[in-house]
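Same chain as my last thread, 442 residues:
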Amino acid sequence: MRRTPMSRRAPAAAPDSHGHASTRLRLLADISFALASSLDAEEALRRLSHRLVPQLADACVVDLVDGERIRRIAVTHRDPDRALRVMGPGLLPGPDDSADPLARVLRGAGPLALASPARAAEPGSLEAVQQDLYRILDAGPVLIVPMRARRQVLGALTLIRPPQAEPFDAEDQSLASDLGHRAGLALENAQLYAFQQNTAEQLQRSLLPDLSGLDWLPLAARYSPARERAEVGGDWYDAFPLPVGPTVLAIGDVIGHDLAAAVRMGQLRNMLRALAYDSGDTPAGVMRRLDRVMQGLTSIELVTAVIAQLQAPPAGPWTLTWTNAGHPPPLLTLPDGTAQLLEGGHAPILGLDPATPRTDAHIAVPPGATVLLYTDGLIERPGEDIGHGFTRLRQHAANLASAPLSVFCDELLDRLTTGYQDDVALLAFRVPHRAPVTPDSP
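reply #2:
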């Protein structure tokens, strides 16, 4: 047979080689986008798995190191039924004492290409689990690459082709190793972000008050961090008795969505407690003092807040007195299902001018009535008029007027925060039928 000279074969091979390279570049770009499009690391890795099949292999398995065990988070195959049959329990035996190729890669052995994965295995071992995987997926050539970041192996990608397929060549291995490295970096970044977010959220929760000292007043409080934007904010609430007379209830929002906002929130709440407890002033007076101290002694810039006092005079109904600094108005829900916004006592937000005039509003509240203080995340929706949010709030609160206070808060959160963008804080209290007994009470 006469051979074709290399100089004549090259032009015909060049277009195919160019197309092959272009396909792989597109695959890299597609997978990079998939890894960067979600802060949920496991969801991003599942997307990666789906993009690798059938571009690079007939099946892809994603495993993560989880302490001393291996957690299998994704199995993708051309035939979805096969993938379902092998997904099984998420936790597998750990890699420490196993000679299985997956365990070796997770211990740092680097990419491993297997021409034939069949081997003997002890029942219940990682090798046995892997052999079941290979058998059900009808495995031929196998390539296992680490997901590595900063010299630490966080997991592995296992690529599987059918028995008749070509083995993974050097180019395949180089591409898969690159993908594993990108996946490892994405996984590390997501884990670091989740750790920082959890730390910030726990700090914010720790700065919120313990309300157990007001046993005579039915109280319920909720704090829910943003779902769409994984950040903490400056939402806060508080409730505490004064030495003589009313009980103070407050809610507010320090402008910002970061750890600094959460720290400023704690600082502001402590100032409010000290000013209200020491001065014995009305809500408007306390708000003026808070504005002056905030602007004079702190770096806190803008704050919305409601400060209220609930008092049971010797004779007559309970009285609620409040003032509002640019915050959504409190909601009063009566036992008969009537719900109204308490829009009095309104003035600009804190941080603009400490000389801003502020006034108190008053209303008599009957026993069994529920007063709700809340932050704007409960009612605001992007692109929607705020009036729709207030209408929804009144309607749902009216329907829940007779529900236990904890159910009242939980249901409002569940019904009103689907797809919300912001943190939400709630503080609700139900006016008791009897005034609290104090040492001076007859």
